[in-house]
Amino acid sequence: ISLHPYSTSVTGSHKIKSQQSERIQYQLVDISQDNAVRDEMQVLVGNPKAAPPHIVNGDHYCGDFELFVEAVKQNMLQEFLKLA
């Protein structure tokens, strides 16, 4: 699975999990468990101060939660997730 939503269990930002289609396989990454994972997310996002949620497909940054919601509204989820 190469689709990785970065989240944290500390702030309760599990909105991505509830918003995504169950047909799309992904591995939720909780940055509160390991600082190295947080650092990895920030490098992938391209912002050393980035906070979750962010979505990455492999090494390709897809966007943050607001962009995800907008893609869902516009029926562009496959393109947003770089699956199309």
Automatic annotation (TrEMBL):
Gene3D superfamilies, per database record: Glutaredoxin (3.40.30.10)
Keywords on record: Acetylation, Cell membrane, Cell projection, Cytoplasm, Glycoprotein, Membrane, Nucleus
SUPFAM superfamilies per UniProt: Thioredoxin-like
Coiled-coil ranges from the UniProt annotation: none
Location in the cell: Cell projection, Ruffle membrane; Cytoplasm, Cytosol; Nucleus
GO CC annotation terms, alphabetical: cytosol; nucleus; ruffle membrane
Main localization category: membrane
InterPro entries linked: Glut_rich_SH3-bd, SH3BGR, Thioredoxin-like_sf
Role description: Could act as a modulator of glutaredoxin biological activity. May play a role in cytoskeleton organization.
Family: Belongs to the SH3BGR family.
Identification of the protein by name: SH3 domain-binding glutamic acid-rich-like protein 3
Organism: Rhinopithecus roxellana (Golden snub-nosed monkey)
